[in-house]
Structure formats: structure tokens, C-alpha cells
Design goal:
The chain is built from 13 helices and no strands. The chain is mainly alpha-helical.
Length: about 325
């Protein structure tokens, strides 16, 4: 199956949509309870969820390929993003975190454009503006504005005007949203949005033993990737190394964001999925034995499908 995604073409990218459908079709047919949490609601929610995963996967692959983060042109980062986005039940439905992640990924793509750019103002503003939109959907995501600051400092010499561009870009979505709420007489929404999302109760998390298993699995994945930092970074040119550094900082930032997210369930682990998908995808592309890579991917893929079927019969 992996061989389909070793080349970049329109057909191969379109197969990512088929891949997303296969991994999400059982929860979609099931009508999983998490679909009730999405604004669209009804039968269109699973469709929107699958399309959003597909678009994010394409965007991730575009970011990896255009910024030459790997010596080979392949679609593994987007593929594994979809795979890990389907790993556990809290990911099987649509949530505001999916939407926030989309704008964060887009913001990182804009951030990467400032490298060796004479006038980076538009890209800095765009990156901050997109993070601002994401922070309206999920306020803790505003922490990524600090990542924009660190990213600029890594890719280009930081200047005072860049700080102003970050502030203005991140503030304008909030200004427009607050103005819209006041115009429509919904001032109470303004004061309720931060308490509804911000919190520091993560370490008071309590759940079933299976919930703790999910936390441990993602904790081990993140720890493994952080330990593998030098392995992933080596044998890359300077531009790619700088951008890989930013992606690792993004992974760390996602862990900070989930800690300060008010809702204490495993859906917050979604914040880490884009970066886990990217780095696992890059590592899979480095496996010289294609048979080993195919076998490992098939085990992960089959495990998710079997787990979905077992969960379906458990609650049916």
C-alpha cells in the first residue's frame, strides 16, 4: 500500500482521500457520538471531517515537498497524519481542534516562506493572522504566536517591525470577531470564550484505564520523536534543518497547548498529530527495506480498522 504514496502526482494525492475514507468510514456509518460536537451536524459532518483530513494531508505534503524537508518527493507525512488522526476513538469525530490545526498548519506554511525573502512582511502577517483565526476557534492555540516569533528568529534576523507584524496579524481576527459579536448584541460570548477553553487542570485528568493507555501511547510517541531529533535533522541542508527545528518546536508547543486546554479528554492529543504524522512519515521514508516499511504500516492500519470494528460491536 505504501508504494502508492512514494511518488507525488495528482492521482497519488487523490488516493489520500480514499485512504481517509477507509479509515473513517466505520465511525461515519456508526454515527459516532463525537459527530454531535461539530457545528455542521447531521449527515454532512462525517463528509466534512474526511475532506478536512484530506486537505490537511495535502497541505502537509505540500509543505514538506516545497521546503525540501526530505531528499525524496513522497506523500508519507500526509499519509501518516491521516493514520494517526484515526488512531483512537476521540479522533473519530469532528472537533474544533481539527479546524484549529488546519489554520496552524497553514500558518507554518506561510512562516516557512520567509526564508531568503527580501520582504517577509506579508508572510509574517499571514502566519500570525492564521494563528489568530485558529485561536478564536481554540484560544490556547494563541501560544503558537510565540512560535512565529521564534521561527522568524531562526529563519531570518529578527527586527522590531516583525514583532509589530506578529502582534497586528494575531490581533486583527480577534478585533473583527469582537466587533461582530458586539454588533449582534452577543457581548457575553466575548467574556465566556476564554474560560470555556483555557484551563490548567490537565494534571488532574481522570479517566478509564484505557484513557491512560492513550495518554501513554502518545507520550511515548512524542518522547521518541524528541529523542530522534538529531537523526531526523541530519544529512539535510541548512534550510531544511532550520525548518525541521521549527517543526520540533511546533511539537513542543502543541504539548503546551494541550496542557492549557480546558477540556480534559483525550481529544486534546489531536494537537500533536500533525507533527507526529510528519516526523513518522519522514522516518518511514528512510527505511531501506520496503518490505519492512509495508509490514509496519499494514500492522498499524489493520490495528486501527480492527479496533474500530470491535468498538462498533461493543456499542451497537
Amino acid at each position: 500500500m505504501l508504494s502508492i504514496f512514494r511518488k507525488n502526482s495528482f492521482f497519488n494525492s487523490l488516493m489520500l482521500l480514499v485512504y481517509a475514507i477507509v479509515l473513517q468510514i466505520i465511525p461515519a456509518i456508526w454515527g459516532h457520538q463525537f459527530y454531535d460536537q461539530v457545528p455542521l451536524g447531521g449527515p454532512f459532518t462525517p463528509v466534512f471531517h474526511i475532506l478536512l483530513l484530506f486537505v490537511q494531508a495535502v497541505f502537509i505534503n505540500k509543505m514538506v515537498i516545497e521546503n525540501r524537508l526530505h531528499r525524496e518527493i513522497m506523500l508519507f507525512p500526509g499519509l501518516f497524519f491521516i493514520l494517526f488522526s484515526s488512531l483512537i476513538p476521540p479522533f473519530w469525530g469532528m472537533s474544533h481542534i481539527h479546524l484549529a490545526n488546519f489554520f496552524v498548519i497553514w500558518g507554518l506554511f506561510e512562516l516557512f516562506q520567509i526564508y531568503k525573502t527580501g520582504n517577509p512582511a506579508i508572510h509574517i502577517f499571514n502566519a500570525s493572522f492564521l494563528i489568530g483565526i485558529a485561536s478564536i476557534i481554540c484560544p490556547p492555540v494563541a501560544i503558537y504566536l510565540l512560535l512565529i516569533f521564534l521561527g522568524i528568529n531562526n529563519l531570518k534576523k529578527m527586527e522590531l517591525v516583525h514583532i509589530l507584524q506578529i502582534f497586528i496579524g494575531g490581533f486583527i481576527p480577534w478585533f473583527l470577531w469582537i466587533t461582530f459579536k458586539i454588533w449582534n448584541g452577543h457581548e457575553s460570548d466575548i467574556t465566556q470564550v476564554l474560560p470555556a477553553h483555557f484551563g490548567n487542570n490537565f494534571f488532574k485528568f481522570s479517566g478509564s484505564p484505557l484513557d491512560y493507555v492513550y495518554l501513554i501511547v502518545f507520550g511515548v510517541l512524542c518522547l521518541y520523536l524528541l529523542v530522534s531529533f538529531n537523526e531526523i535533522r541530519k544529512k539535510k541542508h541548512i534550510q531544511a534543518q532550520k525548518k525541521v527545528d521549527i517543526l520540533f518546536l511546533s511539537l513542543i508547543t502543541s504539548l503546551v497547548v494541550l496542557i492549557f486546554h480546558q477540556y480534559l479528554d483525550n481529544s486534546v492529543l489531536l494537537f500533536t498529530v500533525p507533527y507526529i504524522g510528519i516526523f513518522i512519515g519522514l522516518q518511514f521514508s528512510n527505511i531501506r527495506n520496503n518490505g519492512v516499511a509495508e509490514m509496519l504500516h499494514f500492522i498499524l492500519f489493520a490495528t486501527i480498522i480492527i479496533y474500530q470494528i470491535l468498538t462498533y460491536f461493543k456499542f451497537s
